[in-house]
Write a structure and sequence with these properties.
The protein is mainly α. It is built from 28 helices and six strands. The longest helix has 30 residues.
């Protein structure tokens, strides 16, 4: 009895303590850890305005303003996401930065509308409207996300990376002294390739924090070499003011174009999917449950930050994944560290000399780093596509058609030759109402992938055989009542109704993978009370029904035990239930021998109450996956599933 009381006191003291995410560290510690986040994020943050300025022909003063505005609004966005205001901000350690996905559309929108400062006005109009759109759809995005499965997001991310590579390549062959392209000059090639080589070496031989700033180290070293050789100058750094502020709408009032707005909305829809993944990953790393309301709060913050970005002369915002990785690397979970990083970024945004230092990076050095980053974006898309079942010809058609159409549009656009000759592109050959489709390869690829996914997976009443030994088809599942759905799939979770009810709410399902993820997300978003209900629904090992049959049917190996061995299992299960208040749950497919079951159960009796509950939930997740494979046709385990990641992080 005293042991139980002690365990309860321990549980209540843990429950009443502050979560590490909410812990406010000493000011000095916050400053140091916040600065570390800024260093890890800095290169990726300032690359976007640099590349945009070079691609659209901005003057030096405008570039300085862009860099300052970018850092200033990155700080505001990060504070908003980490600290939170009402229902805006997920209150997790997420550093916000300008998404690379917006880079190609921004360049296209600006150049299609005169380039330079004038073109930026149309960019900011599109960014503001897209930010408002993201804010408004945030509460409903959980329902929209089914239209963005890996085959759609993977295709679009791959297209974005491939479309951005020419931007980096053009910079790599640009003379930093004249601003003219000079691909035959070996000096610029050495700068670009040298920067790439240094980034690779740092990533290979340095681990931890130094590995996360490989791009920054490559830029610093490349610029230093160029300065020694006379191809970089810091004269303007000394001439710049120490303090300055870029006011809202510094380039003029935003202009609005339907084509530009649609392009930017598509980009933000895709980045919203990525933001959702970043929020879930951050929640797993810091050990805080993330539900649909949290996802909505995060996307609201993205929307507000994007509106602020468009107003303060910057661009769309999303979470920077390298900083999510830094949280895991350092083990520091406090969201106030990110808030401190936001304060530092705001301060840097008020420091024109910092912007001038960034502006001094030579184009070939910047191009080398950009090639590495943009190729990495494409690889992320390919990695996402690797999780797609391409034995299903529908997925093959969606990805292949989208990629082909995107490259077709990307390489058949209006372009200007070096002699000033303008060669009309494909967008001039279509009626005005189709112009949106043919503005950029990313727009064409994204719309194609979304449309084809809907056609193939959301309009058919039949579909592939999914469950019930091939007698139940996907269309049947999508048209089931809640009661029918529970009757069909309730056996997966011992009839616990809230699991099937939440999974049912995520219809329609595009395929068996969607159905699996629906059950997994249902469990992840459960409250502590619901998780305990699910654990208690499982039978005790060794228990039998009235006819003498084992209730824990998964454990086939236990059906051949001797009477003495069966009694040992029952004693173990009884001791476990008395100790923790729920049955001993062990995945039979992975621990299928009597001695293994006995050894695993006995060792777990020494676990703390809270950690054993987490351990038991992981076993439930494993059992659910195996049962799903038994019940559902063509259902391969999803390597990217949230529960698989949860298991690896605990």
């Amino acid at each position: 009895m005293s042991i139980v009381a002690s365990l309860r006191r321990h549980h209540h003291s843990r429950r009443g303590s502050k979560h590490p995410v909410d812990e406010v560290l000493p000011v000095q510690t916050l400053a140091v850890l916040g600065a570390q986040h800024v260093v890890a994020f800095y290169a990726g943050a300032v690359l976007v305005p640099l590349l945009i300025a070079m691609a659209i022909g901005l003057d030096g003063e405008a570039l300085t303003m862009l860099i300052m505005a970018d850092l200033f609004t990155c700080g505001i966005a990060s504070i908003l996401q980490a600290v939170g205001v009402f229902k805006i901000g997920v209150r997790l350690p997420l550093v916000q930065g300008v998404t690379f996905a917006s880079l190609a559309p921004v360049i296209k929108i600006a150049n299609d509308n005169g380039g330079g400062r004038e073109g930026l006005l149309y960019v900011y109009g599109a960014v503001i409207v897209a930010g408002v759109f993201t804010f408004l759809i945030a509460p409903y995005f959980a329902r929209l996300i089914r239209f963005f499965p890996p085959v759609v997001t993977g295709s679009v991310i791959t297209i974005i990376g491939v479309s951005l590579l020419p931007v980096g390549i053009n910079n790599a062959v640009t003379n930093p002294n004249t601003g003219q392209q000079d691909p035959g000059n070996v000096r610029w090639m050495v700068y670009a390739l040298g920067t790439i080589a240094l980034i690779v070496v740092v990533r290979r031989f340095f681990h931890g924090f130094l590995g996360t700033i490989a791009v920054l180290m490559g830029l610093v070293a490349g610029t230093a070499v160029a300065w020694v050789l006379g191809d970089a100058s810091f004269n303007e750094v000394g001439e710049a003011n120490w303090v300055g502020f870029v006011p809202p709408f510094a380039f003029g009032w935003p202009q609005f174009s339907a084509v530009a707005i649609v392009s930017m909305i598509i980009v933000l829809l895709i980045t919203s999917v990525e933001s959702t993944g970043s929020v879930l990953a951050a929640g797993e790393i810091v050990g805080k449950r993330v539900g649909k309301k949290d996802i909505a709060a995060a996307l609201r913050a993205d929307g507000v930050a994007t509106v602020v970005g468009g107003s303060f002369n910057s661009f769309p915002y999303t979470a920077f994944n390298q900083n999510v990785g830094l949280v895991r690397l350092t083990g520091v979970k406090s969201r106030w560290v990110v808030a401190a990083a936001g304060v530092i970024m705001i301060a840097l945004g008020l420091f024109p000399k910092a912007a001038q230092i960034v502006e001094a990076i030579p184009a070939p050095v910047l191009g080398g780093a950009s090639i590495t980053l943009f190729a990495s974006v494409a690889i992320v898309g390919i990695q996402t596509l690797s999780k797609v079942d391409f034995t299903d010809q529908r997925n093959l058609i969606i990805a292949g058609t989208s990629l082909g159409l995107a490259l077709y549009v990307e390489h058949a656009q209006t372009r200007r030759e070096s002699d000033g000759t303008v060669i009309p592109g494909i967008e001039t050959a279509v009626p005005g109402f189709l112009e949106i489709l043919f503005t950029t390869g990313i727009t064409m690829g994204a719309i194609s992938a979304i449309f084809l996914n809907i056609v193939f997976f959301h309009t058919s009443r039949g579909g592939h055989a999914v469950a019930g030994g091939g007698t139940i088809r996907l269309g049947d599942i999508n048209s089931m009542t809640a009661e029918q759905f529970h009757a069909t799939f309730g056996q997966l979770v011992h009839g616990v109704e809230w699991v099937t009810r939440r999974a049912y709410a995520q219809r329609p399902f595009a395929d068996a993978h969607d159905l699996r993820v629906a059950f997994q997300e249902s469990m992840l978003t459960a409250t502590d009370e619901e998780k305990l209900e699910l654990l208690r629904a499982f039978p005790d090992l060794g228990s039998e029904d009235e006819s003498g049959q084992l209730v824990a049917a998964d454990h086939v190996a236990l059906s051949t035990l001797s009477e003495e061995e069966n009694l040992t299992v029952i004693k173990l299960a009884t001791a476990y239930r008395m100790h923790f208040g729920f049955p001993l749950i062990i995945c039979a497919r992975e621990v299928d021998r009597f001695d293994s079951v006995l050894r695993a159960g006995t060792s777990r009796l020494d676990n703390a109450d809270s950690s054993e509950k987490s351990f038991a939930l992981i076993e439930v997740a494993k059992i659910l996956n195996y049962r799903f494979d038994d019940l559902v046709a063509d259902a391969n385990p999803a390597s990217d599933s949230y529960l698989a990641r949860l298991e690896g992080l605990r």
